[in-house]
Design a protein that fits this description.
mainly alpha, 7 helices, elongated
Length: 173
């Protein structure tokens, strides 16, 4: 059986753009905390909201991502030896190339449809999780806005100290 070779392009990209990702994450966190504290300070009542920060992809994007069936589940089936098994049973055993090609076509269409649907479900799950944590965070800040102010100052202070240590080449204690 073949050894699975991991695809590490994402690790390389994350390492190359680490600084931009960190700046964006800290800025987004501080701004969202500031907004929640401000909205609580305005006297608005807490209401559980359903938010969808990630839009459902358009049909073209879903079709593009359904092509990833060749990269992810198709590759896993190949590594697991499924196609070799199918070839041995149908072509060598039954001597029927047409049936083998037909079954492979049905499998690939099924995988592409699965990826088409799975991508939409993943976006829905991510939106539900973000909505839940947003509302829990909003409830905590509604109960005690001081926690929000503390978190903002802590994040900004820790980030400032980390930047100062890095620029001044201080030890990381």
């Amino acid at each position: 059986m073949k050894e699975i070779i991991p695809i590490n392009w994402h690790t390389k990209v994350l390492k190359e753009h680490k600084k931009e990702i960190t700046y964006s994450m800290v800025f987004s966190f501080v701004v969202s905390l500031g907004y929640l504290v401000w909205s609580c300070a305005q006297g608005s009542a807490f209401v559980w909201q359903s938010i969808s920060p990630i839009e459902q992809p358009s049909i073209l994007v879903r079709v593009f991502y359904s092509a990833l069936a060749f990269v992810v589940p198709g590759y896993l089936l190949y590594v697991a030896g499924f196609y070799k098994f199918l070839h041995n049973v149908i072509v060598r055993g039954l001597r029927d190339w047409q049936l083998y090609r037909g079954i492979k076509a049905v499998i690939w269409v099924g995988l592409m449809f699965l990826m088409y649907e799975v991508f939409g479900v993943i976006v829905s799950i991510m939106n539900a999780a973000l909505s839940f944590f947003y509302n829990v965070f909003k409830l905590v800040l509604y109960i005690s806005p001081g926690i929000g102010i503390f978190l903002i100052l802590t994040v900004v202070g820790a980030y400032g100290i980390a930047l100062a240590k890095k620029r001044l080449k201080l030890p990381h204690n």
